[in-house]
Each structure stands twice: as C-alpha cells, then as structure tokens.
Write a structure and sequence with these properties.
alpha+beta, Phosphorylase Kinase, domain 1
C-alpha cells in the first residue's frame, strides 16, 4: 500500500507539454503523476500546475482557493527516479474548515479520530501510516477484550474504540484478535486518506478532478 506502486488509471495531457507523460493515479487522494527524462520540463509543468491550483475555485466540488483572505490550496510533491525517467507525484491539498469539520473538510473526520486525529503529512500521503503512539497500548487492549468477549466500554483504554470495534467483533477469536484489529486499523487509515482527498473516487469526483486538469494552461 504505497503510492509509488499505484498505477496511473487515466492518462491526461497538458497543453505545451507533449513530452511529459501525465495521468491520474489510482489512489484515495487526488494525485497527478508526471514523468519525463528531462527534469527541467517536469519542474516547469509542476510549477504551472501548482500555480493553477493555488488560484483554483470550483464551488460545485467545494474547492475554494481562499475564503476571508486565507489561502487554502497547496500541493504535496513526491519525487522519485523510475528507470531513466524522473517521476513526480503531485497530491492536491486543501485546508478549508467548516462548522461541521472544524479541523478541516479534507482532514480525517471525527468518526476516525479514535485512530487518527492529527493532520496527515508527506509520509501518510504516500500510504505509510504514522499513527499515534497511544494506539500501541489501546489496540492491544481492544484485541484482548474482543478475544475474551469483554465489554470495551468498561475500560477507559478501549472506550473510544468501542463503536468501531463492535462492528467486527463477530469475526474475532482469541487466536485471531490481534490480526483482525491490525487489518481493521489499516482500513481506517485508507479512510483517512479518502477523507483527505479533495476529489472523491466516484464519477462525480473524478469529473471535477478533470475540470481542474483542463483548466491548467
């Protein structure tokens, strides 16, 4: 589960950059992948995309370049070599907040805060979960209580995880408890990435993503 292994699912083109291959990456977040053997051309196009994104608003997709003078759009870049080519993944980010999501619309939502409340950075964007240290003890206790059929709400260590863990409790045995908890934690992290994605993975979200790409000149 790492971005570098994710494939381009839709090729796109940017005017004036026929020599740079580009596409949308199959990933929970909104990622444009650029590839070229000429690093200067790669950087030139990436800079153009960044400039366009910083000033881009699409109200239908709830993307606002700024509100009240506060800018919202930026990009998390990840660069690598792949054979003879230079490859650059551009992850579109937006930090707008609302009353419903005071920590950020494109941020882990409240129902995931028992696992991940902190904002995600470069490492998480790439698919490598950096989770709070508190979880080591808490999730071990979740597995122990589930395996023993004990009430998660009776222990302060596990109370916050109860709603989540009760959803998969019927699959847990004393033998597989830790493995199931680890698997389900991974699924939550995938949801964290989805929440941080500025464009949904559905047809409507991808259409909005393409609107931005087509706006880059």
């Amino acid at each position: 589960f790492a971005m570098e292994r994710a494939q381009v699912e839709r090729a796109v083109e940017f005017a004036g950059f026929a020599d740079v291959s580009a596409g949308i990456v199959k990933w929970p977040m909104a990622v444009i992948r650029l590839s070229s053997e000429d690093p200067e051309r790669l950087v030139e196009l990436a800079d153009r995309i960044l400039g366009a994104w910083r000033g881009y608003t699409d109200e239908d997709a709830f993307i606002f370049a700024e509100t009240g003078g506060e800018p919202h759009n930026t990009i998390t870049p990840i660069a690598r070599r792949r054979g003879d080519a230079f490859e650059l993944d551009l992850v579109l980010r937006n930090n707008i907040t609302t009353e419903e999501h005071p920590m950020g619309v494109y941020h882990p939502h409240a129902e995931l805060h028992h696992i991940k409340k902190e904002n995600i950075g470069l490492i998480e964007v790439m698919g490598l979960a950096v989770l709070p240290a508190r979880l080591k003890e808490e999730l071990a206790a979740v597995g122990a209580h589930l395996g023993a059929g004990e009430d998660l709400r009776a222990d302060p260590l596990t109370e916050a995880h109860a709603d989540w863990a009760e959803g998969f409790a019927d699959r847990v045995t004393p033998e597989n408890a830790d493995a199931i908890v680890a698997e389900e934690t991974g699924k939550v992290f995938a949801q964290v990435l989805e929440h941080a994605g500025v464009y949904g993975r559905d047809e409507e979200g991808q259409a909005a993503f393409l609107r931005f790409i087509e706006s880059v000149h």
